[in-house]
Amino acid sequence: MTLSTPLTSTSCTDGPVRLVATAPVALIEIDNPPVNATSQAVRAGLLDAIQEIERNPQIQAAVIACAGRTFVAGADIREFGQPPREPHLPDVVNAIEACSKPVVAAVQGTALGGGCEIALACHGRVLDPGAQFGLPEVKLGLVPGAGGTQRLPRLVGLEAAMDLVSSGRSVKADEALRLGLADRISGDDLRGDAMAFARELVGRPLRRLGELSAAGMDPEAAARKVADIRRKARGAEAPGRAAELVLLAAELPLAEGMARERETFLELRSSDQAAALRHAFFAEREVTRVPGIEGVEPRPVQKIGIVGAGTMGSGIAVAFADAGFDVKVVETDAQALAAGRARIADVYERQVASGRLAEAVRDERLTAVSYDVGLAGLADRDLVIEAVFEDMEVKRTLFRDLDRIVRPGAVLATNTSYLDVGAIAQATSRPADVVGLHFFSPANVMKLVEIVRTDATAADVVATGLAVAKRLRKIPVVCRVCEGFVGNRILTRYRQQAEYLLEEGALPHEVDAAMEAFGFPMGPFAVSDLAGLDISWARRKRLAPTRDPRERYVDVADRLCEAGRFGRKTGAGWYRYEGGRREPDPFVTELIEDASRRRGLTRHPVSVEEIQARIRAAIVNEACKILDERIVERPLDIDVVMMHGYGYPAWRGGPLFEADRVGLKAILDKVNERAGRDGPGWEPAEGLVSRAASGGRFYS
Ligand code: 3H9
């Protein structure tokens, strides 16, 4: 490399860190695609560069910038499974802060984790208007490990730092400026602006965050806050530990605080939770790489048609409008259409009212959605998604009509959550163009989409589903057809086992408390009440004629529905609701006790461990059957569905990742113990039996 001003040493010009010395301000450029993670080579290069800045008399200041689309997005997660290698990031950031010449960070994209810590060690930060700042380590089961918990509170105060560090939330450039995280927001020349700022700092006293002290906090308020963070973390270890470390910034000098931070970082790095969350991170990305679909060109999609403007259809419309698609929503009559339009407007109003969306953006999104009565207006659409009543005949009739109306080559999708997508596709003359796109409610918020392919679905239609999901910033999981696909099929087993526990002696609030302690945001009965009991009642009635008479069937939910108790929306379901709070209800207890009597069971207390172990075994066994039947290709597809659609705690890594840790033999024993008692459908999955017998695992 040729330098415009000769340096006394060029040792730091190799590898992923380049030093471009244009006196008086040098540029240190990190170029480590895809996200400029601080691999060992980056750390070594940065340290060399800083030492060179310190040494070289022609350099008076420096800017740290990154090539590509983002500033440093953190430590290299792939190195976390290996022993740490020198130089360690804390030493690098300390060297940056200690530098006697001003060092300014020029931040574009995302400065996350170690990237944020590098920027905090600099003496100034200039942000691109689209930049984001954050310490997301807790999402990987870690605490920041290079001074983040110590420098951030010295800059923004203990309380704001505890919020940011324990949630892992990123802040955008304007909030970063408000909080003092950014010194300046750049115009259209980030590096030029950062260079100019660095030049201004030459000869001035440098602000080193490590030398400041953070103002203390009332100890009781601090303890309450930590307790609150732990409660919200639902079993995840890192958020509480991170919050406690932040508090040290008001008590200890930087070096001591950083030593404690490093100790905690290294401890958590080798924890089961961190391993599970790393698995979750990579699985979320791997899931989009579907064998047989990689490299297949998706069909171009810009014009979307949505049939049905109920809760689901409206949510889907909002998701597409948010992602810049041209959306047309249709309904059968003007009244239903007006209600749908109001629902969509309401979603945006609430976002504006809570300050999450600017009015101008709302207006832009609202104009992206047009409305029509009848199907005729869908003729020119590239992708039509139906979200109408969950009934096979209704859907088949609709698809017959869509087949007539929508242009050839368009993708026709159903949002069904249970029905046979193949049977729906057969109602058209173009089954290759038909796919299931199963969104989760609220569709504009929930990340998961199941892409359900039939035997006839064309590969480029599956590829289109994946490409559309990517544009929606959703997490797609490709699966094949079965009743309930991946998530709802497992959920059915989960709920059945929960109902068996009721018959044997537990009560809804006990099962819910046990599963919430497991880490689910809500237990199964609270979720039923929220979703509405009538939906699964309709499904049970549909399936009743084909139900195996030997199946253990608990009818308490049916009896609740017969009593008009459909959950929260009717003020009562598995619980009764007072002022929004759920309360156990003696009426429900009586129904359950009656069910136990009719089954001839003597009720007995059921421990939290037993509830958790039985439900976990039910989930893993059904998941394994889904794998055995090749409904999905890989265990990670199931883990991703359960974590992103059903609240399976990510710090457990999903049911199959966790099953490997718990031990398949122990899970199989539980399945076998229940199989004889719970009847057909509960036999152990072949894949579980064979793996347990051979010492195999779901993940090698
Ligand atoms: C940390 O920093 C600890 C420190 O406090 C202390 C240390 C002592 N490492 O997400 P994308 C890969 S903890 C390795 O699809 P996007 C990713 O796997 C870290 N690889 O792109 C993917 O690879 P592939 C704290 C990484 O534009 C590719 O990059 N930092 C890393 O949607 C593209 O990623 C974080 O937790 C990494 N750190 O989103 C940030 N990051 O193509 C984690 C990404 O083979 N990263 N990859 O599948 C993110 O949140 C997003 O990747 C980001 C870009 C927002 C940066």
TrEMBL record:
Location in the cell: Peroxisome
Keywords, ordered alphabetically: Fatty acid metabolism, Isomerase, Lipid degradation, Lipid metabolism, Lyase, Multifunctional enzyme, NAD, Oxidoreductase, Peroxisome
Keyword Oxidoreductase: yes
Pathway where this protein functions: Lipid metabolism; fatty acid beta-oxidation
Domain 3-hydroxyacyl-CoA dehydrogenase NAD binding, first and last residues per copy: 303-480
SUPFAM superfamilies: 6-phosphogluconate dehydrogenase C-terminal domain-like, ClpP/crotonase, NAD(P)-binding Rossmann-fold domains
Pfam families to which the protein is assigned, alphabetical: 3HCDH, 3HCDH_N, ECH_1
GO-annotated biological processes: fatty acid beta-oxidation
Keyword Isomerase part of the UniProt annotation: yes
3-hydroxyacyl-CoA dehydrogenase C-terminal domain ranges (all copies): 484-577, 613-671
InterPro entries found in the cross-reference section: 3-OHacyl-CoA_DH_NAD-bd, 3HC_DH_C, 6-PGluconate_DH-like_C_sf, ClpP/crotonase-like_dom_sf, Enoyl-CoA_hydra/iso, NAD(P)-bd_dom_sf
Source organism superkingdom: Bacteria
MF-aspect GO terms: (3S)-3-hydroxyacyl-CoA dehydrogenase (NAD+) activity; enoyl-CoA hydratase activity; isomerase activity; NAD+ binding
Catalytic activity: a (3S)-3-hydroxyacyl-CoA + NAD(+) = a 3-oxoacyl-CoA + NADH + H(+)
PANTHER family: 3-HYDROXYACYL-COA DEHYROGENASE (PTHR23309), PEROXISOMAL BIFUNCTIONAL ENZYME (PTHR23309:SF49)
Subunit structure: Monomer.
Protein name listed in UniProt: 3-hydroxyacyl-CoA dehydrogenase
